[in-house]
Amino acid sequence: MRIDVLTSNIHYCSAKQLDIIINATYTYGKPNEQTILLQTENLCLKNGSIKHSISNGIFPCQYRYNLPLNFYIRTTITDTSTNTKQQANSNNIVLTSRPYILSHSHTINYYRINYANYIVIDVKDFKQKPVSNVPLNVKIISQYGFEIQSYKISNDSSLKSDSNGLAIVTFSLTDSIGRLRVLATTNDTRFNHADQAILNFILFPFDKNEKAAIFIADKKKLFFQAGDQFQSKIDYYSEQIKPDSLFWIASSKGYIFHNEKIETSNQITLNITNQMVPNVRILVLAITNSEEVISDSILIHVEQKDCGVKIELDSNENVTIFEPGAEIKFRFHGNKNDIVAMNAIDESVYILRNKSAKLRFQKMMQTYDIGNGPGGGKNSLHIIDAAGFKVLQKKLNKEKYRNKRSMDDNCLLYNHLCCRMALLSARKSCDERYKIVKKYAKKPDCHTTFLQCCRCRWEDGLQTSTVHRPETSKSKPNYEFNHPMNSDERIESQIDEKNTRYDFRDSWLFDLILLNGR
Fold first, then answer.
1. pLDDT tens for each residue of 22-68
2. CA quadruple 477, 479, 482, 484: dihedral positive or negative?
3. CA end-to-end span of the chain, whole Å?
4. Rounded mean pLDDT of 494-513?
5. Inter-residue contact 329 to 415 (CB < 8 Å)
6. What domains can be seen in the chain, in order of their start residue?
7. Sign (positive/negative) of CA torsion 171, 172, 175, 176?
8. Can you give the pLDDT at residue 418?
9. For residues 37 and 355, what is the distance between their CA atoms, to the nearest angstrom?
10. Exposed site from 188, 191, 292, 310, fewest CB < 10 Å?
């Protein structure tokens, strides 16, 4: 018997009730006219279908700070002719009081006088995906109660979120007037006023003690694709800056890949490439006549456009299915000296977990960012620190003494990054992987540490992934979550354990390939 529980994907607290439809049919298509148990109510299906409404009073809408929440409807249908029961669940339903989620994670929380300041509102749905064309209202209110005029940067008649879910307004002040309160609300006419999303946050004034200033003028575009070009004018007071003392630095994933002196044109230009995914931090620096460092920074996000590398089977025959043990050869087309990471994902693992390996890798790359936040800060030293850098001056840095080495050498060894690489599961031998690490590792002692850990991993029991076989598992997996216990036992007794798969590791192949032009 097939059971379908049909509901809406989102349920709002302002609604009076949740409507559901339940359809039940036998496998050969005959409608089922039996009894259904829904929560504490007994209902009868007629012609295999029923409509029912659940009062909104049972939902925890009074605790709006705990929303959104996920829930689902579970039904139990009893076939009176055989006295058997079968359960079915609806898809996940989001309980919320607002249709959107607003945030200001791209907004620099400090404003400067005499410069354009940008407020960036991020609009997402409950799957954390950006939502475009959402109308918004943004108000900037001073601590004295009066509203500050703001301007949208788009050409639309009203302020709306763009394709990245961002809505940007700008404002400028000639005097520092203390804290500013920003109030952002959605204005989607499809929803009631009570359902509109609301966001409140505070902007703080930049340090008044810094008389000189340097500023990245163009901050109205934050998302770029490979092949785009970032350009911005650098504003500063020339009489307060030493000649030839302006510089800018670009870093990505913890590495500085570009540094340059800012020439008399006062313009910086950066060509965006795939190597800059997922983001780039740009830091501008200058030294004043009084030997003080001033700075500004911005974080821009980079989306991959084309991988730049194509892969194909190195075979004359159009064959995509191979027998176990067969040798498969691949041909890569790309730029010389590029290093390609080849990762094979088992189809069953991909289906079971329903996750994209590409998105997981990009999320992991974000953890290598040495900075914090969208850029900016309360003063120049704070800006430099938030961008992931330190200014070293003798008067600010006391002499540091070397810490005592731990007596537990094994502990030190296993905390080493290159040692942790050796603990990962791989099909290649330690010697084969050692050659790769020696060739590409930037730290001179990395390959030695790697080999030492790789050879002792089995002796010390340092395996990072284990496979639970039926004879060693403490408890058998629950194959049918919705069935009663006696049904579980009957199904498990029919499983052929010799041909049952229990190993669902993320990857069975990972390799680094150097494109040498052949």
1. 877 765 544 444 444 444 456 666 666 777 788 877 787 777 667 77
2. negative
3. 59
4. 61
5. no
6. 2-96 (2.60.40.1940), 99-206 (2.60.40.10), 212-332+370-395 (2.60.40.1930)
7. positive
8. 82
9. 35
10. 310
